[in-house]
Amino acid sequence: MDYRHKEIEKKWQDIWDEKESFKAYNDYSKPKYYPLVEFPYPSGQGLHVGHPRPYTALDIVARKRRMEGYNVLYTMGWDAFGLPTENYAIKNKIHPAIVTEDNVKRFKEQLKSLGLSFDWSREINTTDPKYFKWTQWIFIKLFENGLAYKKEMDINWCTSCKVGLANEEVVGGVCERCGSPVVKKAKSQWMLKITEYADRLIDDLEDLDYIERVKSQQKNWIGKSTGMEVDFKTTAGEKLRVYTTRPDTIYGATYMVVSPEHPMLETYKDQISNYDAIEAYREEARSKSDFERTELNKDKTGVEIVGIKAINPLTEKEIPIWISDYVLMTYGTGAIMAVPGHDSRDWEFAKAFGLPIVEVVSGGNVDEAAYSDIDDGILVNSPLIDGLRVDDAKKKISEYIEQNGFGIGKVNFKLRDWVFSRQRYWGEPIPLVSCPTCGWVPLPESELPLTLPDVESYEPTDNGESPLAVMNEWIETTCPKCGGHAHRETDTMPQWAGSSWYFLRYCDPDNDQEFASMDALNYWMPVDWYNGGMEHTTLHLLYSRFWHKFLFDIGVVNTKEPYLKRTSHGMIMGENNEKMSKSRGNVVNPDDIVKEFGADTLRLYEMFIGDFEKSVPWSDNSVKGCRRFLDRTWSLMDTVVPGDHYTPSLETIIHKTIKKVSEDYETLKFNTAIAAMMSLLNDYKKVETITHADFKMLLTLLNPVAPHISEEMWSIMDFGGMITEQTWPKFDPEKVIDSVVEMAVQINGKVRSTITLPVDASQAEAHELAMADEKIRVFTDGKQIVKEIFVPGKIFNIVVKG
RNA sequence: GCCGAAGUGGUGGAACUGGCAGACGCGCCGGACUCAAAAUCCGGAGAGGUAACACUCGUGCGGGUUCGAGUCCCGCCUUCGGCACCA
After folding, report:
1. DSSP per residue over A132-169, as a string?
2. How confident is the model at residue A291, as a pLDDT?
3. Which residue from A244, A266, A261 is spatially nearest to A253, judged by alpha carbons?
């Protein structure tokens, strides 16, 4: 009988469906486990070979947990709002809802063909009004709690998508999605105050089991810095406030710099004698894109503000004030005290304009470069803090500054508030109306969901307004508060909205009273293990943590963090080790692999290919190798004979393999788990016959990776029931140890021979055996044995001299 | 520049708290089966060296600790990912 993957895979997928083998029950008495994978954006391209990698990995965990007796919630959905669908719809004149439906259908078929053990009865779709009703509900809560506000601001405007972007969506000055240039555009936008949660988003990482690179990237992105705001008097009258993390270097502040957008320039216009030059510089800065302004290693430019001086509060000396675009209005106070001796940017600026450089921390050479080391430096030229180390000096001077009212401690973040408006059609409408008398008013819950108007055209407008802005019938409405004439907000939400809370909906997907019941949340949450791409670390992952914390604060979820554990998979590259793309011609279609080799082979291959956390190139030949392993396992059926016990010569290796595979499935080391099973197969092949017990064990261990073929063989062998319903095996700790071991014998640390001895043999026995070995005697005869190191079961090292 | 990860055969990658480097797979070489090929099965191999052993070298580079280092310490180099004029 041949291994016919097509028939077998279809057959078992149908049986699992019919028996609801993977249904998550609301039986709250059982221990639960909630593994989560990022739900895909159903693009028109269909499934990519990258998708099955994380899905299979957590499928393995999910299947193992079920066999361990857990009630497992493993499910799937569609993050289906978004630009590509909308653009495709515009181009082909098909409604985005229909495009979405088609894409979802295709994705679902493809995913189903992989035999992933999702509970499909809990499938969700972010574009379903029953779903986005609650996305809108959460937005209203954010609004009611003062975390959503509208602000006229310069936004990142993608010239091609004709849409505003969050900072997180701008990569290297271009649009993350389409690569077109991003320019500044003033627009009134809905903003979410994620910055209010900045501290907690950093602090609470502490107790979470996230892989280190995720933690550090999030910390980096939030960018907490602790320093002081210090007021410098000016000759113009009012004080000028700066932010610094190095108050200890204040005696070295020889000039000040304000950003081109700083309001003082307007305020003191009359006192500035070179205002024309200043204005020209400001105009130049305005015309530059963010990218140009922040370009690497750019030469410093600037203009001195003539007519106003600042006064250093500690030295009482007058220092000049400059304007330069290396100081950003969006960070700190938009003004700095420049300490060229100890800040490389200030140093460059001072060199460029011949400004004085004063050394206030010794240890470097400020004529050569700024000395910014904070560990070894000693303060000099700083009357109050001379001779102190940097950290002590910082402490002392900070106290002094605060006591004298010159300034105050201040924490700053790089994180900015989240631009939440999109001027597009295919997103959740923002459920607010603008009333001339009441201002912004949220829709009452009874009017949710607010659905999109069903129209023919949804092209973006050239003036930057949402396509909804021209749909008068939809816009015109009455104010829920005063009943007067009002109109709807025409912006929609970004794609990140629906994905910021979807894991909550899985807990209770059909609830039409709440986004999920507290009972369901209490049972299922938090997510035990969340795996997803590194590209979502500062976007989706951060956003959803923010939303969750907010929901926790208003008492509608039970945990302050959504995910206990976060891991990440590496990308699958093309065979030439370049990113898979149509233009490179190195795209592999998972359907082809499933068709030719079977889903089990694809699953096995994607898990075996290499370190799960690293990117790996695709290899057609390795796929064949994985299929070969399954074929060889299949042919093993010819050698199986009845028997409830392990074949004695295989017993130790079987227990070792149970241990290895069980542990490796938990730690993302799927590649070595599979290697161990391949080894076990090789051992099985070396004996004439194997018992039912031997074979059952291999099938059980293999089942989470290759569920169809293991189920089929279980059935052919008539082992009873389904393998999916079996219990995960345990190993016997006493039986994973070999009774006899081969031990390397070293002379001065170099292996010269091996001896075979019982695992519990003494050093004396080892010594005797070693000395009986001719290869060893060659090295010991006539030499003095200085020392013997004996590590039971590991090594025997003889140190000789002479 | 800062943060993070990593450098091991022809190749993807193994190696627990320092203990026989190269598991497992691919590719390659040889053999069996075949008219032949594919598939399958059996066997082989880090490099140098030898008739064969022996032996020597070998985990990015340079030092160090240790009976013993891919693994630990110090100093570098390179690659990848993230951030970046954030004061």
Report:
1. HHHHHHHHHHHHHTT-EEEEEEEEEEETTTTEEE-GGG
2. 60
3. A244
pLDDT in tens, A29-79: 999 999 999 999 999 989 999 999 999 999 999 999 999 999 999 999 999
CA distances from A105 to A22, A23, A98, A666 (A): 21, 21, 11, 32
Contact A631, A706 (CB under 8 A): no
Q: Is the CB of A611 under 7 A from strand B?
A: yes
> What does A734-798 look like in DSSP terms, one character per residue?
GGGS-SEEEEEEEETTEEEEEEEEETT--HHHHHHHHHT-HHHHHHHTTSEEEEEEEETTTEEEE
Six-digit token string for A87? 């653009």
Q: How far is the CA of A634 from the C1' of B37 (A)?
A: 25
Give the residues of chain A that fall short of pLDDT 50.
296
Q: Are A269 and A275 in contact (CB under 8 A)?
A: yes
Q: Which residue has the tokens 């710099």?
A: A257
A380 touches strand B (CB under 7 A): no
CB atoms within 10 A of CB A590: 21
Q: Among A180, A181, A190, A70, which residue's Cα sits nearest to residue A136?
A: A190
The total of other beta-carbon atoms located within 10 Å of residue A10's CB is 14
Q: Are A440 and A434 in contact (CB under 8 A)?
A: yes
**Residue A482 Cβ < 7 Å to strand B:** no
pLDDT for the residue numbered A289 = 62
Residue A323 phi, psi (nearest 5): -120, 130
Q: What confidence score (pLDDT) does residue A247 get? A: 95
Query: Which nucleotide lies at the shortest CA–C1' distance from A749?
Result: B68
CB A366 within 8 A of CB A377: no
Respond yes or no on whether the N-terminal peptide bond of residue A494 is cis (omega within 30° of 0).
Answer: no
Which chain B nucleotides are covered by protein, judged by CB under 7 A? 3-5, 12-16, 19-21, 23-27, 39-42, 55-56, 67-69, 80-87
Measuring from the CA of residue A664 to each C1' atom, give the nucleotide at the shortest distance: B16
User: Which 165-224 residues of chain A approach strand B with CB closer than 7 Å?
Assistant: 171, 212-213, 216-217, 220-221, 223
pLDDT in tens, A684-732: 999 999 999 999 999 999 999 999 999 999 999 999 999 999 999 999 9
In this predicted structure, what is the pLDDT of residue A113? Answer: 96
Look up the pTM and report it: 0.93
CB A376 within 8 Å of CB A393? no
Query: For residues A414 and A591, what is the distance between their CA atoms, to the nearest angstrom?
Result: 44
Q: What is the 3-state secondary structure (H, E, C) of A198-219?
A: HHHHHHHHHHCEECHHHHHHHH
pLDDT at A238: 84
Which nucleotide has the least CA–C1' distance to A331?
B86
Cβ(A565)–Cβ(A94) below 8 Å: no
Look at residue A286 in the predicted model and tell me its pLDDT: 78
Nucleotide nearest to A293 (CA to C1'): B85
A415 nearest nucleotide via C1' and CA: B86
Question: Residue A715 contacts by C-beta under 8 Å, 6 or more apart in sequence?
Answer: A722
Decide if A433 contacts A488 (C-beta within 8 A): yes
Q: Residue A453 has which token pair? A: 């108007």
pLDDT for res A186: 77
Q: Distance (Å, rounded) from C-alpha A437 to C-alpha A99?
A: 40
Distance CA A410, CA A404 (A): 16
C-alpha–C-alpha distance, residues A347 and A356, integer Å: 10
- From A574, A606, A600, A599, select the one nearest A587 (Cα to Cα): A574
| Mean of per-residue pLDDT scores for chain A | 91
Between CA A662 and C1' B19 the distance (Å) reads: 25
Query: C1' nearest to CA of A752: which nucleotide?
Result: B20
Which helix (H) or strand (E) covers residue A415, if one does? none
The residues of A between 339 and 368 with beta carbon within 7 Å of nucleic strand B are: 339, 343, 345, 348
